[in-house]
Amino acid sequence: MHAQLLPNDRVVMFDRTDFGQSKISLPEEKCRKLADGRIDCSAHSVELNLLNQDVRPLTVLTDTWCSSGALAPDGMLIQSGGSNTGERAVRTFQPCADCDWMENQKGLVVPRWYASNQILPNGKVIVVGGRGQFSYEYIPKSSLPSDFKVFALPFLRETRDAVENNLYPFTHLSTDGNLFIFANTKSILFDYIRNRVVRDDYPAMPGGVSRNYPSTGSSVLLPLKLGSINGTNGAAPDAEVFICGGAPPTSYISAIKGTFLPAAKSCGRLMITAKQPKWVMEEMPMERVMGDMLLLPTGDVLIINGAKKGAAGWYLGREPVLNPVLYQPESSKYEIMEPSKIPRMYHSTAVLITDGRVLVGGSNPNKNYNFTEEFPTELSVEVFSPPYLSSGPRPQISWAKPETELSYKQPISIGFTTKKNGEFPLFDKFFKKKSHQQNGELENISVTMVAPSFNTHSFSMNQRMMVLETNQVRQLSGRSYVIDCFAPATPNIAPPGYYLLFVAHNGIPSKGRWIHIS
């Protein structure tokens, strides 16, 4: 139900704690006593080691059902809310060899179920909304009384309809430091420091479709293209949001009654920094509700998982969408990928991993662990390999200066190699000219920074990609090159924390290299 890649190449995954006995056992000393007196010795959270595929059982006690999360600047997973015993819980997980969950059952001021989390420029995490909560607060708390304050957000009340359709609101940090919030069909730009709406002139997304839970679509902030450290004449770079899928507002009620309405095919792009923003509408190749949208290191968007009919909820989805779709923002082109054999319906996850593949897991649209339903509880994980992994030799990052710790605006040099001579024939003229301009010789190479996201319920919280400003490429030998670029200018553009650094050439990325910016 939830997944997060950590900067030690482990993926933490967890479900809810009251689904019944799972098929992974805890050590005997970690067994827990349930409210009805039964003893539960099964794990409801695990850590998957991507390097050797080992699975380590983890102990989570409070109910994490439909909760939210983010990576703190130091790489710690900070995770909040849920249901029942977990509705006010804040949990933390440190990326170390034998760490386990730490839990504070009173870490939130009010219950947060189906809320969204966003890391902020100051390193704090804002927790927005939740069922019946039209407000926000910050985590982790300090000892200051001001940290235990809840701030009203009327926009969430205004966007709730008869079946809600505004839970897990889409939150994206804009490049001016304000928070873009989308719920149902509407959006605002919000100054969370002063607790005021700074923009409410965004038009409603067309199409008559709800985009948030339970009419669940998905959303990404498209790659931020950085230049001139990092904007024009000192202005912040443009920011554009891309939203796909969803369902008619009545889809949830109709599905409960046995009628499964077709999901939406529509997508929309909105330049949230434009003076006169307007939606540019497009169509996917097929309908999709409960789909996941992931930024790939090339800047393309992968749309994966979900169903063609119904809504999010137990037993409410039909006709699984087995084919992922690759979207190219530069050309607005959609390309259908080869299908999976495994339906990934409600409560599925997808996360980008270090080698450029996508780890996909889960699917449980049932009230408990059930292996006999039409869409049974799915215990497997699989990896999706984007086309770039079969398109030719990959660049290989051999070194970086600075190696891992970056400061804002800092120059970066990255050494990389190719598999064979002649990999970059377009560079020959460039090397002779020793030009520093972004001309044709540099158009096919890029350096990107990708933030690892917390994925649940078709929304990858804190997902973010920057295309770095590049200066020049130098050839060291026949197969060795150096590219010079610049770190993002401010934490508004790249909040402090861990990122994966990629070098891509002709649409083929290297494996990711962990870096940290502060």
From TrEMBL:
Organism listed in the record: Papaver somniferum
All residue ranges annotated as the Galactose oxidase-like Early set domain in the record: 394-517
Keywords: Signal
Protein name, entry field: Galactose oxidase-like Early set domain-containing protein
Highest taxon of source: Eukaryota
Domain Glyoxal oxidase N-terminal: from-to ranges: 1-388
InterPro entries per UniProt: Gal_Oxase/kelch_b-propeller, Gal_Oxidase_central_sf, Glyoxal_oxidase_N, GO-like_E_set, Ig-like_fold, Ig_E-set
Pfam families reported for this sequence: Glyoxal_oxid_N, GO-like_E_set
